[in-house]
Specification:
Blueprint: E1 2-3, H1 9-14, E2 16-23, H2 26-41, E3 47-53, E4 57-60, H3 73-78, E5 82-85, E6 92-95, E7 99-105, H4 108-111, H5 115-132, E8 138-140, E9 143-148, E10 151-161, E11 164-172, E12 192-193, H6 196-200, H7 206-220, E13 225-227, E14 231-232
Parallel strand pairs: 2-3, 2-13, 4-5, 10-12
Antiparallel strand pairs: 1-14, 3-7, 4-6, 7-11, 8-9, 9-10, 10-11
Helix pairs in contact: 5-7
């Protein structure tokens, strides 16, 4: 992966670039993040914020339970749904078109953030985005993520290596919620799940939601965001 960034190491430390990956397989986004974590740890990459959507995929986190799937995995695969292992925290979760993934690759030590403070910051990003669409989200003690009443709308799963974060926040925007019926999301039996579209009564323009995410991220974290000038695999 080559980024065209003509900056000093000090400037890299203080900046944050944004990349919109579009609709990409979960496994591809995971590979990109892994490369970026190594580059960030080596001081060859600034803090980076990735945005993405994924084709319908169930990811299995490090804290999975044996009964998190309510149907057989074979039946899910027969429907063309992907199942991927993930090194993030949390249990099983669904990702699909209409769900916005926010993947910050950040040096948490540089920011002076503990893991719990970082989780709180990601929750604040989600809360600000929801508020912009007149949705009142809440935190729920003991359950990372964001809720609207008794239903979950934002999911957080992280992996921290050498003080560098990957994975992050999944926010249900126009997500097809039927797929959540196949699992106990985040290991919570019978948990209700909602989306911004369901609460607003209409589908939302994802570009508008992404813009609100960037604004909220810049409000919560001490960065001025900018787009990378060029990225390619290599």
């Amino acid at each position: 992966m080559i980024l065209n960034l003509d900056q000093t190491s000090e400037a890299l430390e203080l900046s944050c670039i944004t990349l919109d990956l579009g609709l990409v397989p979960y496994s591809h986004a995971a590979e990109i993040q892994e490369k970026m974590v190594r580059m960030r740890a080596a001081g060859a990459l600034p803090n980076t914020l990735l945005l993405a959507e994924h084709p319908s995929t169930f990811t299995i986190g490090r804290f999975k339970r044996a009964n998190d799937f309510k149907v057989s995995r074979a039946s899910l695969l027969a429907q063309g749904l992907a199942i991927c292992q993930s090194d993030r925290g949390g249990g099983v979760i669904y990702h699909g078109p209409g769900q916005l993934l926010v993947y910050p690759i950040l040096g948490l030590k540089q920011l002076g953030l503990s893991v719990s403070q970082y989780v709180h910051s990601l929750e604040e990003v989600a809360l600000q985005v929801l508020e912009a669409f007149n949705i009142q989200g809440q935190r729920k003690p003991g359950y990372p993520g964001i809720w609207v009443g008794a239903a979950k709308i934002g999911f957080i799963g992280l992996h921290i290596s050498c003080g560098i974060s990957k994975h992050g926040l999944a926010l249900n925007v126009n997500t097809d919620l039927r797929y959540f019926d196949y699992i106990d999301s985040c290991g919570i039996p019978q948990v209700a799940v909602t989306s911004m579209a369901e609460l607003c009564g209409a589908s939302l323009e994802m570009s508008m939601v992404k813009e609100r995410v960037l604004q909220a991220f810049q409000s919560v974290f001490p960065f001025k965001l900018r787009k990378a000038s060029h990225v390619s695999d290599g």
